[in-house]
Amino acid sequence: MKFLDLAKVYIRSGGGGGGCVSFRREKYIEFGGPDGGDGGNGGSVWAEAVDGLNTLIDFRYQQHFFARSGQPGMGKQRTGKTGDDIVLRVPVGTEILDEDQETVIADMTELGQRVELARGGNGGFGNLHFKSSTNQAPRRANPGQEGVERTIWLRLKLIADVGLLGMPNAGKSTFLAATSNARPKIADYPFTTLHPNLGVVGVDNVEFVVADIPGLIGGASEGRGLGDLFLGHVERCAILLHLVDGTSQAVAEDYQTIITEIEAYDGPLAGKPRLTVLNKIDALDEDELAEAKLALETASGGPVMTMSGVSGEGVTDVLRALRAEIDDDRLRHRTNVEEEPAPWQP
Questions:
Q1: I need a surface site. Which of 1, 5, 217, 276 has the fewest CB within 10 A?
Q2: Which of 257-267 are b and which e, b meaning 16 or more Cβ less than 10 Å from the residue's Cβ?
Q3: DSSP secondary structure string for all residues of 141-175
Q4: Can you tell me the distance from the alpha carbon of 255 to that of 245, in angstroms, rounded to the nearest whole number?
Q5: pLDDT digits (tens, 9 = 90+) for 322-334
């Protein structure tokens, strides 16, 4: 399945059915009177956050969603049928934006959340509605209300607890593959990761979700490389894991490049807590490791952890440090208690 995190959608709610002008005319029945029914309401357009989706690829093949209009009223006091609603099923974490791509209509952050995007038009009154003691034979009815037509944008921001940041080939995908069942593409050339990946990581009987996004380079905020389009997928994270390639000849410059890009990004990323980790220490000797760690600590102005995603050295300590920064209500506690088998029954 291809990954798609932005889609343009055209929606239109159904119009209301018109009211009916009718009079009761039956043989041997005098003074029949008006009996025109009301029109049915038009169908509405809804959005619902559902489970089992992590991409907007379905909206690439269908962009138009039109709800049915209500049926007009009929004689014998019959009301027109209400038009059926249309439901747009989107992944959890989808933002619904207006046509300007700036005004947020709704943020679908909870499973089962529903929001009405376009309300159907009301049905018109039939002439039965206007009957009174002074107007016993009304000959007018109201038309139905027109539906609402609008253009919206769907933008997916993945729900994760930890977001991975770093230059291309910093070892982000290797870390995700070593700590979870995710199998991102890993190769020895830059920009191996072309779309975000999610993995469930476990440590000390708790689990949390880690999001890996394509690497950033200098000038990503101006569109260089893959740009900063994927940074929105780590906006909802509780903590950012900044991986720095320990084999690089410019560790401090690599660190500052990422910091500059997330500060240039228009979002809450700059203020999020970050854990800086020097990666690929299995390829360094003691002197090189000490020099690289000192340079990174000087550039970051704080503590730096070390690990190797290939050999596993220091990975558990990094996971425990991440767990300490994640709120308890976001952690998924695993139970090791085995259920006793039920007694045999014939």
A1: 1
A2: bbbebbeebee
A3: -PPPPPPPEEEEEEEE----SEEEE-STTSSHHHH
A4: 9
A5: 988 888 767 776 6
